[in-house]
């Protein structure tokens, strides 16, 4: 696990360059790896619905978000106001490609000075994903495949771990798929509380996702946090979002998904998810749905 953690910034830079999709779909592209999802992929995904069973992949929004409820005497109904952060380590959300930058540039090599303004982002905003994501989802339960309750805090997931989970699930992750990874982090938190370090995908897996032409990554882990690098403090975001244009679905609820996959004996499903059309926004809270 940890023995493969890349600490050398030059090696991380080499991965950054190797997996680059800069200008792959044109200099004005704002979809990134969503370009891998074509009409045929959507039709293929729709055919996965055979049980008519849907499962939410969103974590509940807790009461500690800003919430004001208005109920007046004589009012026919109640209404409320929610103030929700679009990012962080708790809420389920989609990252816009403009969410991350690396050394002054964001996805497609765009200088942040051309996008990041006081009124929001002007390139790669979350509205680019407004038509939604409708594709094949695949769960790789790496903890289950390795016989672990959970990956230890700060540990790393390797390509071998992903492929072991593929073999256990009887699936092959491919072009246009939404990849979900379960390392058991939520089970760890339930029993031990939130740790100071988090497990995550090692950089070798970014190359693997690039080769497989994954459209979306989501899971109960991102990169190992904290990451021992001066330049790549969040390497999945720096390399995934900025270099690859990889769409990140952060902090989905994968335990219910894993339970359903085990019960049905299948690890592929139709994924549907769409962001709020927040103009010039860097992300959006979402409720992804897996349908079997």
UniProtKB/TrEMBL annotation:
Name of this protein: Cyclase
Gene Ontology MF term list: arylformamidase activity
PANTHER family, per the entry: CYCLASE, PTHR34861
InterPro entries in the record: KFase/CYL, KFase_sf
Pfam families in the record: Cyclase
GO BP annotations listed: L-tryptophan catabolic process to kynurenine
Lineage start: Bacteria, Bacillati, Actinomycetota, Actinomycetes, Streptosporangiales
């Amino acid at each position: 696990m940890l023995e493969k953690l890349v600490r050398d910034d030059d090696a991380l830079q080499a991965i950054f360059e190797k997996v680059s999709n800069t200008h792959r779909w044109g200099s004005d592209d704002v979809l990134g790896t969503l370009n891998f999802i074509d009409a045929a992929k959507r039709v293929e995904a729709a055919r996965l619905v055979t049980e008519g069973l849907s499962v939410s992949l969103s974590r509940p929004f807790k009461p500690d978000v800003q919430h004001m409820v208005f109920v007046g005497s004589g009012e026919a109904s109640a209404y409320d106001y929610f103030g929700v952060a679009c990012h962080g380590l708790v809420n389920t959300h989609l990252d816009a490609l403009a969410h991350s930058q690396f050394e002054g540039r964001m996805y497609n090599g765009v200088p942040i000075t051309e996008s990041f303004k006081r009124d929001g982002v002007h390139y790669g905003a979350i509205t680019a994903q407004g038509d939604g994501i409708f594709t094949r989802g695949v769960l790789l339960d790496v903890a289950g495949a390795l016989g672990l309750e959970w990956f230890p805090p700060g540990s790393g997931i390797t390509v071998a771990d992903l492929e072991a989970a593929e073999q256990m699930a009887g699936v092959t992750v491919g072009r246009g798929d939404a990849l979900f990874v379960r390392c058991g982090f939520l089970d760890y938190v339930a029993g031990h509380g939130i740790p100071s370090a988090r497990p995550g995908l090692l950089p070798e897996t970014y190359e693997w996702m690039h080769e497989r032409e994954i459209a979306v990554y989501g899971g109960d882990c991102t990169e190992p946090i904290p990451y021992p690098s001066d330049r790549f403090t969040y390497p999945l975001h720096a390399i995934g979002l900025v270099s690859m244009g990889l769409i990140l679905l952060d902090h989905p609820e994968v335990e219910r998904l894993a339970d359903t996959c085990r019960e049905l004996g299948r690890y592929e499903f139709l994924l549907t998810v769409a962001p709020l059309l927040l103009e010039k926004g860097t992300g959006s809270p979402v409720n992804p749905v897996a349908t079997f």
